[in-house]
Amino acid sequence: MMEVTTEKLLVVKDLKVHFNTARGIVKALDGVNLEIGRAETYGLVGETGSGKSVTALSIMRLIRPPGKIMEGKISFEGKELLGKTEEEMRMIRGSRIAMIFQEPMTSLNPVYTVGGQIAEPLKIHKSLEKSEILSKAVDLLNLVRMPEPLRTMAQYPHELSGGMRQRAMIAMMLSCDPSLLIADEPTTALDVTIQAQILQLMRELQQKMNSSILLITHDLGIVAEMCHRLAIMYAGQVVESATVNELFEDPKHPYTVGLLRAIPKPHERVSRLEVIPGSVPDLIHAPQGCKFHPRCPHVMDVCRSKEPSYIKVSEEHYVACHLYND
Question: Is 88 within the bounds of a domain?
Fold first, then answer.
């Protein structure tokens, strides 16, 4: 892994996002805190519905009604994003912050060629001649090791395989050399072989471009392979964050412990994998106190009434759990 600097590229503090629905207000994010350094790969892990993708969309300022960012701070390259106009954000998206979505078939426009879509960010953010844009687009497809890049330029998304579409999406997102690349489940729709190729490609491109990656996934195996640090999300909150090595060796939060125990171990034969009982709570009527307490094997009276504070347990290890509160 490349060396990570101590300089903070992205700082998210006390971020709250609500969605107004017919059933009531969904508190999708309830005080999220993240810090990502330059040249760092940071993992964001949690069950479906924990708030991972909403966090990514909030950073991009893509939350739309009925959703709304209620409060918090998002500082990127030392500048506060929540105070910027939509026009200012359009100049940041794709140029300084780019996002790879989970399923490229739904993100790439089906009526435009792959080459046209890769060229679009270059037209918006770079002062290049038409011939330079086309040459740059071909170079980007070569960079992501797309077979027959010239032919691919003229093809439409439906003519490509899943792995090729994801490569095209990565090429488009890298076109303006962003400082931060948000990858939202970038390999979920791919088979295992192509998944490994895409992850290796992302690692090589990060080293070449010295960019940071926010990797959103539910796969702890991918996190162990790719990331420097990670945060565990549950019910719209970060419940634990640490370096990858420390979190895997010494998890603190009962939810994190449960996730790690649920991973099958190659050297052990078991008839049934361990599971975390219950399910993610309804965020319209979230439990009082610690949101994990209805599923926690170590629940105490204080857990049912008081929300735990986010405390430091070692140099880079933080946890929100009453087991570690004084």
Answer: yes
